[in-house]
UniProtKB/TrEMBL annotation:
HAMAP family: FlgI. It is found in: Bacterial flagellum basal body. InterPro entries: Flag_FlgI. This is Flagellar P-ring protein. It holds the Pfam family FlgI. It comes from the Bacteria. Assembles around the rod to form the L-ring and probably protects the motor/basal body from shearing forces during rotation. It comes from Marinicauda algicola.
Length: 366
């Protein structure tokens, strides 16, 4: 009975550890199966006087004239002063294997000096790829999350009222030519290239499909050939192997965001034997001028301002701490916290340790 319970507990621990590792679909992409970026230039109409100033934005005025001419309205000699039109850039992500008639979301961003796109309607705008091929057409009412309001003496703005979104606002008119089913294999691209992870991925796939099915070409690419049993079923093979779990490895790295004082360290970060001392120097300069004036009813003398400056220097020194041996991430953090350092001081300390050659990790400053 006791042995049965022990085996059950061991199986539960092993299952939990296995499920802690990421799936292949979470750390790698299938070559050719990707989104495609689309962009277009268009006009938004129906704004409540918050559009572009036509005198300041020549491209908006030219686009408005061109649009009206398509409807046989000639206004090139007219002095247009409408504030209900804005020139915009429309962006979208075309999903892989999107069929004709599929709808996708688009983002609309003001290009001129429009104050807000609230209540505007985007006129039919072609969306193109980098080569100028049109793949979708966007049109519809814009939903803006931000807003702005103003009065005679004050104004308020929340969010960004010059950027909006149209859900299902673009209609796919052209499909991308990519025949995945006709291939005899696939290439998996790791999102974080690493030799160890690539080899582990190939080993996991070979353990499932059979020896020789997968091969790690470099730290980024793992090739998988179509094995027996999956003839003309490449999609089925991809669906099966992307559920396999692999223990992902990564380099020891310290990422620092100096703007916010944020520090993120991987678990493999190590520090060799090093001594650390950190202190703060505070210099306070205070001015307390005094007024000197002659005695009452004096025949001579004048009132003068006599400067008086007081300077105090305070230096706070903390004890020197010694990190012995090659300590782990937890020991490093505990040691720095024991010195009572702030996150910004910790950034300086980590950079100094790296300069001394004692930090066995890369430092990346955002």
């Amino acid at each position: 009975m006791i042995r049965t319970i022990a085996l059950a507990l061991l199986a539960a621990v092993l299952t939990t550890a296995a499920h802690a590792n990421p799936r292949i679909k979470d750390i790698a992409d299938v070559e050719g199966v990707r989104d495609n970026q689309l962009v277009g230039y268009g006009l938004v109409v129906g704004l409540d006087g918050t559009g572009d100033t036509l005198r300041n934005t020549a491209f908006t005025r030219q686009s408005l004239n061109s649009m009206l001419e398509r409807f046989n309205v000639n206004v090139r000699e007219a002095d247009l002063r409408t504030g209900n039109v804005a020139a915009v850039i429309v962006t979208a992500e075309l999903p892989p294997f999107a069929m004709q008639g599929t709808r996708i979301d688009v983002t609309v961003s003001a290009l001129g000096d429009a104050e807000s796109l609230q209540g505007g309607v985007l006129i039919a705008t072609p969306l193109m790829d980098a080569q100028g091929n049109v793949y979708a057409v966007s049109q519809g009412s814009i939903a803006v999350g931000g807003f702005s309001a103003e009065g005679d003496a004050a104004s308020i703005t929340r969010g960004v009222p010059t950027v909006g979104r149209i859900s299902n606002g673009a209609l796919v008119e052209r499909e991308l030519g990519f025949d995945l089913a006709a291939r005899e294999g696939v290439r998996l691209a790791l999102r974080n290239p690493d030799f160890t992870t690539a080899r582990r991925m190939a080993e996991a796939i070979n353990a499932y499909l059979g020896r020789g099915a997968a091969r790690a070409v470099n730290p980024s690419i793992v090739t998988v050939a179509l094995p027996a049993g999956y003839e003309r079923d490449l999609v089925g093979m991809i669906a099966d192997i992307e559920q396999l779990r692999v223990e992902a490895d990564m380099r020891a790295r310290v990422v620092i965001d100096e703007a916010t004082g944020t520090i993120v360290m991987g678990e493999d970060v190590r520090v060799s034997t090093v001594a650390i001392a950190q202190g703060n120097l505070t210099i306070t300069v205070s001015e307390a001028p005094m007024v000197s004036q002659p005695a009452p009813f004096a025949d001579v003398g004048e009132t003068v301002l006599v400067p008086r400056t007081e300077i105090n220097v305070e230096e706070e020194m903390r004890q020197m701490g010694v990190l012995e041996g090659t300590v782990s991430l937890r020991e490093l953090v505990d040691g720095l916290n024991a010195l009572g350092v702030s996150p910004r001081d910790m950034i300086t300390i980590l950079q100094t340790i790296k300069a001394a050659g004692a930090l066995q990790a890369e430092i990346e400053v955002l």
